[in-house]
Amino acid sequence: MQRRYVSIWFRQLLSDWQLIRRPELSEIPFVFAAPDHGRLLITAVSPLAADAGITLGMKAADAKAICMGLEVLDDKPGRAEKLLRGLAEWCIRYAPIVATDEFSKDGLLLEVSGCPHLWGGEKSYLKDIVSRLKSKGYTVRLAIADTPGAAWAVSRFGKVTPLIPGGEHPQALLALPPEALRLDEVILARLRKLGFYQIKSFIHMPRSVLRRRFGEAFLLRLAQALGTEPETLMPVVIPTAFQERLPLLEPIRTAAAIETAITRLLKVICDKLRAEGKGLRKGILTGYRLDGQLIQVTIGTSAPSDNAAHLLKLFQLKIDQIRPGLGIELFILDVPRVDDLQPAQEAIWSAKPGLDDGSVIRLLDRVAGKMGPQSIHRYLPATQYWPERSIKNTFSVSEKRICDWRTDLPRPTEMLAAPAPIEVMALIPDHPPCFFIYKNTQHQVVKADGPERIEREWWLDEGEHRDYYQVEDDRGRRYWLFRSGHYGSDQPFKWFIHGFFA
């Protein structure tokens, strides 16, 4: 497929932004200025100020002398970049890859291959982008061509149609000035000195001559515009490997229409996942509203799934969270996390126990969708001796344990995340406690078993060993206590409670 690129030039980005916020300034000339070595220099000019002869880079004091009643506004560092990024995210509705213009800082570059036909062709595509941005208050110029460099050049310097047919971008560049190649001022000064005021004056000269006079950077920019050297765009939002877009001919607002749109997206994305042997673990549905706002809902699965019906049920739990406003005109379904699907095996008995049963997994997904994934916990044994490191939490039901649970010695059914200090009265040297105080409550010990010594894993950290005791108080409650260190050592010993038995 032939690649196509769109360049969007915001001719007066900051002044348009200010006029959107303060429409009363439409009758007043104003500029933005920022300090530079003790001077205020103009960084953005409104249309009325430009008509008065004020230009970028002029001193604010000189500008006031030229234009009476000029309003000078403070320009904050990074304001234009932040505004441009917001516009880039808004433009993702037109193409998955949208990048900010790193050369001039006042435009966007879109890779639109395969997108214009959704709007009825490139002409309608450009018209829709222009009309939508103008309706928001921005003055823009657009162009579409086979390379980012050619689209950039035509959008800023072209005097012909902004729609450059495939393969005709070299001819579209010929009559443009050298500035259209995104060259720095030093190279441009050399070109003017030699009388090169159009690209056609030097485009057919030998590369060795051009390299000797203007350098390698000049040749790179020329080659990028012509398409003989690739140019990589850095998107503001990196698209996922599995993504599906659904532009809507008419904005939708009802829950039934939203469900229909989700069904269509899931059918396509699940076919793609199935073809790659993958299953969805996390899905993000983004809706683009008419008012420019974005809405998002996210689902997750306990195991990889390519079952569109099951995934639809998870999204149905979230539909009431989607606020369509005046209407949603585009849906994008991203699958940022996938796992390999385990091929189903034929068996005489279809019922499978525990987490191998697909119905159990689907139930867990629905519970997580209603109550949140944090409400479901699964634990596996870890190959560690230290009790608090011997258990790990996992969010995947397909993960297998790498070791067996320890069953040769009893372990508490509930273990504290961190041992809690207690006060103990115990005989020495290795007798269990006679009583202990935990949370200001005294517990009289009537039965005890131990000690079980657990050595610290010296290759992970340093410290004392632990002597664990199982104790039962006079009310029949059982606890897991330990003494850190031992009597007679140089280090003081302490007692802790670590768990509770059923």
TrEMBL record:
One BP term from GO: DNA repair
Pfam families recorded: IMS
Every UmuC domain range: 10-155
Name this protein carries in UniProt: Protein ImuB
Family: Belongs to the DNA polymerase type-Y family.
Keyword hit for Cell division: no
Keyword DNA damage in annotation: yes
Keyword annotations from UniProtKB, A to Z: DNA damage
Coiled coil, from the record: none
